[in-house]
Design brief:
Elements lengths: L1 H18 L1 E8 L2 E8 L5 E10 L2 E4 L2 E5 L4 E3 L4 E3 L5 E3 L3 E10 H8 L1 H10 L6 E5 L5 E3 L5
Parallel strand pairs: 2-5, 5-10
Antiparallel strand pairs: 1-2, 3-4, 3-9, 4-5, 6-7, 7-8, 9-10, 9-11
Helix pairs in contact: 1-2, 2-3
Length: about 140
């Protein structure tokens, strides 16, 4: 029963976001980066340790859709946030967003996002962490 309710909530949230958005996402090096805008945003606070997920960069063992402005430096293996802060593998970040299944990510962000998830080696059925499109990512854990 709980699983069905969760699916309905995620589906409803996906429908609402897709009805009020103009978004896409594509690989920029090992990052899946969103572009565009949402009229609304997800209200959860998401975060974790920056890590390699397959051939891409995520949080813990979850693939991430990063907001535009976040970039990756392969030489130093560090993430650069929108404000210029450098975050190395193993350090924590957080920001507004949520978690959704691959199907919801594909619906919101399109075919390039679907292909990027495959290219990164994300398994079918996995949950993807999504930072709000145009949102900020900050250093530190959620608890700080």
């Amino acid at each position: 029963m709980t699983r069905t309710r969760t699916c309905v909530v995620v589906t409803a949230a996906t429908f609402l976001l897709s009805a009020c958005s103009s978004t896409s996402a594509s690989l920029d090096g090992p990052l899946l980066v969103s572009e565009g805008s949402w009229d609304d945003s997800m209200t959860a606070l998401v975060g974790g340790e920056v890590s390699r997920v397959g051939s891409c960069i995520g949080l813990g063992d979850s693939m991430v859709v990063w907001p535009q402005g976040v970039s990756w430096d392969e030489d130093s293996e560090a993430l650069t946030l929108g404000d210029g802060t450098v975050v190395e593998l193993g350090e924590e970040v957080h920001g507004g967003g949520g978690s959704m299944g691959i199907g919801a990510v594909n619906s919101l962000f399109g075919d390039d996002a679907a292909q990027a998830l495959k290219d990164c080696g994300v398994e079918v059925g996995s949950q993807v962490t999504v930072f709000n499109v145009g949102g900020d990512v900050e250093t530190g854990s959620i608890e700080e």
